[in-house]
Design a protein that fits this description.
The chain is α+β, with helices and mostly antiparallel strands. 24% of the residues lie in helices and 29% in strands. Strands 1, 2, 3, 4, 5, 6, 9, 19 and 21 form a 9-stranded mixed sheet that branches. Strands 18-12-20 form a 3-stranded antiparallel sheet. Strands 14-13-17 form a 3-stranded antiparallel sheet. Keywords: Dioxygenase, Iron, Metal-binding, Oxidoreductase.
């Protein structure tokens, strides 16, 4: 039976005793869902898997989102994206995920993202220490830490999340190889609107659902008031007491809950310090389905 070892921090836990080359038993998958609801980030260490294993494991959680550009996916499993700074014949083999600042993947889609699942194939090191940490912030704890009057003010407010705003910010950074999105690509990722607060479908806890990467405007407020409130929320949610850092090791499978967290990949490695990750991004349509919740005994 797998065992859960919490980090002791505000979020995060290690799952011992799983081999992801084999299909999960229903009881083990239900345990993972409950642990994800409690800890928000789960590390499954010591894995030696192929792309199809990552795809099959990830698909248990929901629909896997494809790439907007149609590039940088594994040839043996198109649902598996490649994150890397490695060049082959002068061309990148994957998309660089570090240096993107704080964000929540897929908040820019009408159906929100549920989990990211990353497998560490190659981790850069310097002086024996791993580089390219991923830092997380707990948006359940961030909500709990808000003044009750502000919690009440946020109820009923919505924010617009825009993928292209984020893409352009990343594209114009020094050294970026990103091309502008074509009109067709932009049409695949139109802005989406979500409430600033949500009730988590597994834990039942209230979550502050906005992030500096994609949330650009509170629609019920004027532009200046919206900007001021978003800046206040962003400063609040990134306080050190809400954070935890994952230090990568080859063979780690890390899954984290987009509904409950923000994340930031640290770009502290150079072009010759190679990093290679495989990734599946899973959407949240299934986890909000009452039938899914009843089946896995997760209804609050």
């Amino acid at each position: 039976m797998p065992a859960i070892e919490p980090t002791g921090a505000v979020l995060g836990a290690t799952v011992h005793g799983l081999d992801l080359t084999r299909p999960l038993h229903d009881e083990d998958f239900a345990m993972l869902l409950r642990a994800l609801g409690e800890h928000a980030v789960l590390r499954i260490p010591g894995q030696r898997i192929e792309p199809r294993h990552l795809r099959e494991f990830s698909a248990r959680f929901g629909h896997i989102q494809g790439s907007v550009t149609g590039r940088f996916h594994h040839k043996d499993a198109p649902e598996v994206g490649i994150l890397s700074n490695i060049l082959q014949d002068g061309q990148p083999i994957g998309i660089a995920d570090a240096g993107q600042d704080w964000h929540t993947d897929m908040s820019y889609t009408a159906t929100r993202g549920f989990v990211n699942v990353l497998y560490a194939v190659q981790v850069p090191r310097r002086d024996g220490l791993p580089l390219g940490d991923t830092v997380f912030a707990d948006m359940r704890a961030a909500f709990d830490g808000l003044d009750p009057a502000l919690q009440q003010r946020l109820a009923g407010l919505t924010a617009r999340h825009d993928f292209n705003v984020f893409w352009e910010r990343m594209r114009t950074r020094p050294g970026s190889a990103r091309a502008p999105l074509t009109p067709e690509q932009r049409a695949q990722r139109p802005p989406a609107t979500h409430p600033l607060l949500l009730r988590h479908p597994i834990s039942g806890r209230s979550v502050l659902y906005c992030n500096p990467g994609y949330a650009e405007r509170i629609l019920e407020l004027g532009e200046a008031e919206s900007r001021a409130l978003l800046d206040k929320l962003f400063a609040h949610q990134l306080q050190p007491e809400y954070r935890w850092t994952h230090h990568w090791t080859e063979g780690d499978v890390l899954l984290w809950d987009h509904l409950a967290t923000l994340h930031n990949a640290i770009p502290d490695y150079g072009p010759a310090e190679h990093r290679l990750m495989w990734r599946c991004q899973v959407m949240a349509e299934r986890v909000f389905d009452p039938e899914f919740q009843r089946h896995w005994r997760l209804a609050a």
